[in-house]
Amino acid sequence: MDIALTGVVIVLIATLGGSLIVRRNSSQQPIQVKAVLFGLYFWGLVFLQLVIAGLLLR
Q: How much is the pTM?
């Protein structure tokens, strides 16, 4: 259960972080560019959090 809860928290933080970064940095971009940037930011945040969680939760 702890693994599932950790995964849900990581996904929520990555979703919020990705949407905040896209809103803040790309006000002049079309929707398609915003969608691609959100995907890049989302997966970047997910992988960063997985590395940190893996190091801390040994």
A: 0.86
